[in-house]
Description:
Elements: H1 2-19, H2 22-64, H3 68-80, E1 82-91, E2 103-108, E3 113-119, H4 136-145, E4 146-157, E5 160-168, E6 177-185, E7 188-193, E8 203-209
Antiparallel strand pairs: 1-2, 1-8, 2-3, 3-4, 4-5, 5-6, 6-7, 7-8
Amino acid sequence: MLIHQYSVLPFCLLCLPYLRPMLPVALQKVTMTKEKARKIRIRRRVGGALAITTIFLLGLALATRPTSGQQKEGATKDQLIGTWMLVSAQNEKKAEIFGPHPVGMLVFDASGHFTSQVMRGDLPKFASPNRTKATPEESQAVIRGYIAYFGTYTVTAPGTLSLHIISGSFPNWNGADQQRSFVINGDELQYTNLATSFGDASAHLLWKRVSAAQ
């Protein structure tokens, strides 16, 4: 066994001059491999840290963001604020409640107050300049063809408006709390009232926003 081991030694010594030029190249490859592995480890650590930071920031943003209901409620209230002019007023049967050319104005302010006026566009003039001397027919035409009220409002849910009526031309509504459903599309407001004062099941009003130039 010893003879076999020592017999290989001269062969290795003879090969050493040929192997010596290859050693720097081999060592350089080993060094490059280690450097590459070190860079890969650094990149992995940096990537992991960035991923953790991103997840943390995303979770923080989701935790502090208002819910979809809150966002919709705030947006619809902001969209309601302003002055609206009446375009049409129909009941559930598509009949014109205030005639073919109704007139009206609806105002919501930022402090939560509102006022509404709706009337026929063809109300007859009184014979007397003193409205307290109106004939029964003239008074009846106004009662049937005009309604106004004012109070406070809140958006209780997306598309749902709660009104507290302080006073108006129909005394039965004074102090009442009512709801309206609404949809806003651009500068148009579709407004539905299920608590009408004229006996129909519902009133569907279309309003158009008044721009600052008007």
